[in-house]
Amino acid sequence: MTELGIVAVGGYNEMGRNMTAIRVDDKIIIIDMGLRLDRVQIHEDVEIDKMHSLELIEMGAIPDDTIMKEIDGNVCAIVCTHGHLDHIGAISKLAHRYAAPIIGTPYTSALIQHQIDSERKFGVKNRIISVKAGGTYQVNDDVSIEMIRTQHSIIDAVFVAVHTPRGAILYACDFKLDRTPTLGEPPAFDRLRELGKEGVVAMIAESTNATRAGKTPSERIAHDMVRDVLLGTEESDVGMIITTFASHIARLNSIMQFATEMKRTPILLGRSMDRYVNTARELGYIELPKKTEIYGNRKDIDRAFKKIMEKGKDKYLPIVTGHQGEPGAILSRVANGDTAYKIESGDKVIFSANTIPTPMTQANRYALETKLKMKGARLYDNVHVSGHAYREDHWELIRLVNPENVIPAHGNIDMHSAYIEMAEDAGYELGHTLHLLRNGEELYIED
C-alpha cells in the first residue's frame, strides 16, 4: 500500500514563506520555497543575496526546513507554482540542500534563474527544468508531476498535481478563477473536472481571501478601472504617476497600452520592473509599445526623472515601484523629494494595487500617502482587483475537483478558519476529511 504524507514546512501559520512537501512512500516532492516579505522590511527590489539561510530562518523570513531531516525519504523534485517571491524567494537559500531538479513553467523558471544568479552566499547547482502549463514531469514509474494552467496576478501560474498510485494530490496556491483574463488563457477547467473524476486524494488550497464573500473580479475589470482613471478625465495635461506590482505583467501591459492611447511615453522605473517586464518580453509573453522606456539602475532612474521634468510631465507616464510605501522604493523617494520629479498641486498618483494587510506595510503606506497629499497630489487608491480566490471561487474549485481531503494553506488562522467554515458547508468534516495544519506538522493520508 502506498503511504502518503503532507508536510507543512512554511506558510501554514502566516502569509508567505510557502513550502510544502508531499511524501509518496520514500519519494518526496517539495512544492514552493518562498520568502515572508514583511520580515525583511521588503519590497520587490529586495536584496537578501548576501544573507545566510540560518539568519533568515531565525528572522522567520524563509521556511524552517530543518523538519525535512526528520522525514524519511529522498527529495526527487522541487516544483514552483509561479514566480512571486513568497513562492520562489527562498530557492537561492535552500535548494542547494537537496539533490533534486527545480521545475517551473518557462516564466517562473527564468525568474528562479535570476534569483540564483544574484545569490552571493550559496552556490545553487540544481538543474532547472522548464515544463509548460499542461505538461508533465515523470519522477519515476509511480509518481509524476502535472502542471495545470490557472490565472493569478503573475503570468504562467499553475496548479500542481502530484500523481500517485492512490490518486492525485492537488496543490492550489495561488489562483483566481478568471474566465476573461487580459493576458494568457483561462484556467484549465476541463482538465480540473477530469482530474476530479480520476480521483483527488487531497487538495491543498490557499486561504488568503477566503474571508471575502463572493467571487474575485476578473482582471478585465481592473483593466477597465485603470483605463477610466487614466483616460476618463478632463485634466489630461497634469502630471500622472502610477504604481503597481512589478510582477503583474497583465496589469502593466494594460497600463502601457493606455499610456500610448494618451500619447504619453510609458516609462517603467525600478530594478524589479526591469527584471520582470524584460523577462516577459524576452520570452514572448508581451510586446512593448515602441516608445517604452525601462530603467532599473538608480542613476538611470534619476536621469529619467530629470528628463521628464525638462520635457514636460504631460509627455510621460511613469510606472513605478513603491505602492506599499516601502522605504527606498521609487514612489517613496519621489514623496520624500529625493528625485528630480516634483509632485505639484493637482498631479495624479494612482495606486493600482491593494495595501498588504500587515501593520508595517499599512504604516508605511499611510506615511507615503500623507507625504504625497502634503505636496498637493490627488490620490486614486485601490484601482485594482485581487489575484486571489474569494470564498465562492474556493467553493467552485472544491465542487469541480471533489477531493477526498482538503487542507487550507498560505494564510493565517483567521483565513484558515474562513476556509474551514466554507469547506464544512461543502460537506467536509474537520479532523476527518478537513485538516488544519501548522508549520512543522505532517499529515498522513490514510487509505
How are the SSEs ordered, and which strands pair?
Layout: E1 4-10, E2 19-24, E3 27-31, H1 53-58, E4 74-79, H2 85-88, H3 91-94, E5 102-104, H4 106-118, E6 128-130, E7 136-138, E8 144-149, E9 158-164, E10 167-172, H5 189-198, E11 200-206, H6 219-231, E12 240-243, H7 249-261, E13 265-269, H8 271-282, E14 293-295, H9 298-311, E15 316-320, H10 330-335, E16 348-351, H11 359-374, E17 378-380, H12 391-401, E18 405-409, H13 413-425, E19 441-445
Parallel strand pairs: 3-4, 4-5, 5-6, 10-11, 11-18, 12-15, 12-16, 13-14, 13-15, 16-17
Antiparallel strand pairs: 1-2, 1-19, 2-3, 7-8, 8-9, 9-10
Question: What is the β-strand count?
Answer: 19
Write the CATH homologous superfamily of the largest domain: Ribonuclease Z/Hydroxyacylglutathione hydrolase-like
Mean pLDDT: 93
Helix content: 25-40%
Largest sheet: 7 strands, mixed
Summarize the structure.
This protein has helices spanning 53-58, 85-88, 91-94, 106-118, 189-198, 219-231, 249-261, 271-282, 298-311, 330-335, 359-374, 391-401, 413-425, and strands spanning 4-10, 19-24, 27-31, 74-79, 102-104, 128-130, 136-138, 144-149, 158-164, 167-172, 200-206, 240-243, 265-269, 293-295, 316-320, 348-351, 378-380, 405-409, 441-445. The longest helix is centred in the last third of the chain and has 16 residues, at 359-374. With 447 residues, it is α/β, with parallel strands linked by helices.
What does this structure look like?
Its cofactor is Zn(2+). An RNase that has 5'-3' exonuclease activity. May be involved in RNA degradation. InterPro entries: Metallo-B-lactamas, RibonucZ/Hydroxyglut_hydro, RMMBL, RNase_J, RNase_J_2, RNase_J_arc, RNase_J_b_CASP. There is one protein chain. The chain has 13 helices and 19 strands. By secondary structure, the protein is of the alpha/beta class. The protein has 2 domains: 271 residues, 4-Layer Sandwich (Metallo-beta-lactamase, Chain A); 162 residues, Rossmann fold. The strands form 3 sheets. A 7-stranded mixed beta sheet has the order 6-5-4-3-2-1-19. It has a 6-stranded mixed beta sheet with strand order 7-8-9-10-11-18. The longest helix is centred in the C-terminal third of the chain and has 16 residues. The termini are close together.
